[in-house]
Amino acid sequence: MSALFSLKGKVALITGATNGIGLGMAKGLASADIDQIILTYRSEKPLEEAIKVLQEVNPNVKFASIQVDLSAADEDATVKKIFEESYAKSSTGNIDILINNAGISARYALESFPQEEFDQVLKVNLSIPVKLTKAIGTKMLETKTEGKIVFTASLMSFQGGLNTTAYAITKGGINQFMKGLSNEWSSKGIRVNAIAPGYIQTKLTDSMDADRKATVLPRIPIGRWGNIDDFMGPIVFLTSDASKYVTGETLLVDGGWMAR
């Protein structure tokens, strides 16, 4: 059974893995004996801290990093940089797993939502993941790689939320993109899925006001907010042979929120 969950010999590229849910996912990959994890990052200190955490999980895992700001003006140049450097730095010359995790949010009523911030959310959460997936996925097809692509979706892939219209647009779009792409690529050897986190203790949820936070916990059937380690098992499942007949699915990691 352990062989089904092994990622030995594989190389993964993950965006936004220096903290939060992305770091939890990277911990899962490391625990499954993956050969190499390639991380995107913006600043050195969070990267150093993340690698230290991951090496404690598995000191044998190799790491590579790509410094990039996903909110930079030229998104095509950003995608090109990630694509080219990921293959150049891969220990095998290949990318087996792509995890589109990086994301941002901004909370405003629509009528007062600054257009620049609105557009930034759409770019980072939707446009760049779509373009990066096209680039990496096309390479997987060319090299006949049995690839795994995972997106970080959200409860907002299913619900509208409050004062989060830009975020809801992107997470709804990511979920539909995942499904459509799964229909196109699954028969060609690439499995495409998503993970939808519930309310997780991360920097992204720190922006919620206290009154809103107080209404969340009573609605979670499991009785607690999630933490980043709750994503270790789900990401290993979706990127390993344990889920080889699973594609086009959104795995909810929400403590039962959507079942309520």
From TrEMBL:
User: InterPro entries from the entry?
Assistant: NAD(P)-bd_dom_sf (IPR036291), Sc_DH/Rdtase_CS (IPR020904), SDR_fam (IPR002347)
Please give the name of this protein. Answer: L-rhamnose-1-dehydrogenase
What Gene Ontology molecular-function terms does this entry list? oxidoreductase activity, acting on the CH-OH group of donors, NAD or NADP as acceptor
> Is Signal set as a keyword in this record?
no
Iron is among the record's keywords: no
Which key words tag this protein in UniProt?
NADP, Oxidoreductase
Similarity field: Belongs to the short-chain dehydrogenases/reductases (SDR) family.
